[in-house]
Amino acid sequence: MKELNYNTEDPIAALATGWEESALAVIRTSGIESIELAAAVFSDPDRLLNAAGTTAVYGYIIDPGSGERLDEVVATVFRAPKSYTGENSVEISCHGGIPAVSAVLSSLTGAGFRNAAPGEFTLRAFVNGKLDLTRAEAVHEIVTAKTVKAHSLALNRLSGALERRIDQLKTGILDMISAVELLLDYPEDELDGQAGDYPLNAEDVANLQSAVEKLSDSFRAGKVFRDGVPVALAGRTNAGKSSLFNLLLKEDRAIVSEIHGTTRDYIESWITVKGIPLRIFDTAGLRDSENPIEAEGIKRSGEVIAEAGIVLYLVDSSEGLNAEDAKFIRNFSDPKRLICIWSKVDAASASAPEGFIPLSSLTAEGLGKLEDALSGIALGKKGIEDDVVIDSLRQRDLLNRAAEALLKTKEAVLVEAPLDAVAMELKDALDALGEITGEISSADILNNIFSNFCVGK
Ligand SMILES: Nc1nc2c(ncn2[C@@H]2O[C@H](COP(=O)(O)OP(=O)(O)OP(=O)(O)O)[C@@H](O)[C@H]2O)c(=O)[nH]1
Ligand SMILES: [Mg+2]
């Protein structure tokens, strides 16, 4: 991992948009003297120097030696503390061609800007108190979000929802610490009326512990929205897998026919169900085949099915459940990841066996139930109750540490253990939560977080 440069004194510059041909590109600068340094390579330096905060100035970036115009730009001036980083800053919108960007950037570094390291702008925003660590991490997640829902959850964190939730938990712990310390600081006989009462009750601690655990559990939902879940369609030949694949994709993608063994190579595609990205695999129908190509297709499908997070097992309702189906369902490693489907129900004569979802790919009957089942399995029983979910392993590990300390607190309270031991556990829980928001941080922690960012963020 590359060490970040923690010197926040010097002015920095970086391209904030991608290194590719585009209409416009944005180059960010920040730091002491950033306005003066940018003015040194600007066609009308006085206008930049005298610009009020958050105003845009039109002009050219020039080569200060020759005076040659390098690109036509709009420079937006931000004055501390009203900027992303909290420092003076100039954002330059130039043309998006790579030569234009290179020329503007080298002119800026010639003027005295240093190339910014990954995440350095957001690091400065954190150091200057513009963001806590949960919001800083959300910045990275917003940039890398792959779905609308993942983006909206990260945006919720950026607006401080997670920080506020952590603050509530911290307040709960602080109240308990105060109650304990009051008794530690004053001998019991000096506290009229309170003498003899143990200052905490186990139920309050348990409630706090379960709130911390709930937040920790939301990591799973956050990950599902970010990375998605692989879903495999399985079943005997002709069960209707490819038809259901096409229905889910809303596209005539897989070949459908009444001939058994139509699908050979498995095919895959991304869909979104209730905001959850699902990677759907249509597989070869399962049967004993003499044909080496079909047999190879079935073998590969078996691997896809074994690795899928969720398996949809289709049984053709006009054929009914046979021994082979029963065997697959019985032997399936994790019933919680299996959804059984009674397919072609528009033409069914028998009603669906217990636990099966009746579905028709012809009329889309049962599709809503299937979507409910998919999101239920993907998000777990608890689902997401509100839109505060965590999305980083760092946050989850710290929440687990806090939950562990609260569990120990609860056990100590149950046996009315000495109060200094209880206070120690509570403080450990508080420290863990403080590390999540960044009140307690070290260079290592910051390096871990910000080095994952892209340059320019
Ligand atoms: N009436 C009706 N027919 C369906 C339905 N779904 C599929 N079929 C028909 O069933 C036959 C097999 O469908 P496929 O989707 O190709 O079945 P498959 O499971 O992919 O078959 P293989 O690729 O051979 O394993 C086709 O003739 C479809 O038109 C349905 O919901 N209702
Ligand atoms: Mg098929």
Could you describe the 3D structure shown?
With 457 residues, the protein is an alpha/beta fold. Among the domains are: 12-130, Probable tRNA modification gtpase trme, domain 1 (Gyrase A, domain 2); 226-379, Rossmann fold (3-Layer(aba) Sandwich), CATH 3.40.50. Helix content is 45%, strand content 16%. The chain contains 15 helices and twelve strands. It has helices at residues 34-39, 45-50, 98-111, 120-127, 133-144, 148-158, 161-185, 202-227, 241-249, 292-307, 323-331, 367-379, 393-414, 419-437, 443-450, and strands at residues 12-15, 24-30, 55-62, 69-78, 89-95, 114-115, 229-235, 267-273, 276-282, 310-316, 338-343, 356-358. The protein has a six-stranded mixed sheet. A six-stranded mixed sheet has the order 8-9-7-10-11-12, with helices on both faces. The two termini are 17 Å apart. The site of magnesium ion (MG) has 6 residues, from α9.
What is the assigned CATH homologous superfamily of the domain at 226-379?
P-loop containing nucleotide triphosphate hydrolases
Count helical runs: 15
- What is the CATH first-level class name of the domain at 226-379? Alpha Beta
Bound molecules: guanosine-5'-triphosphate, magnesium ion
Q: What is the CATH architecture term of the domain at 226-379?
A: 3-Layer(aba) Sandwich
Could you estimate the helical fraction of the residues in percent? 40-55%
The description of the largest β-sheet is: 6 strands, mixed
Q: Give the overall silhouette.
A: flat
Briefly note the CATH topology name of the domain at 226-379: Rossmann fold
Strand ordering within the main sheet: 3-4-5-2-1-6
Give the termini separation: 17 Å
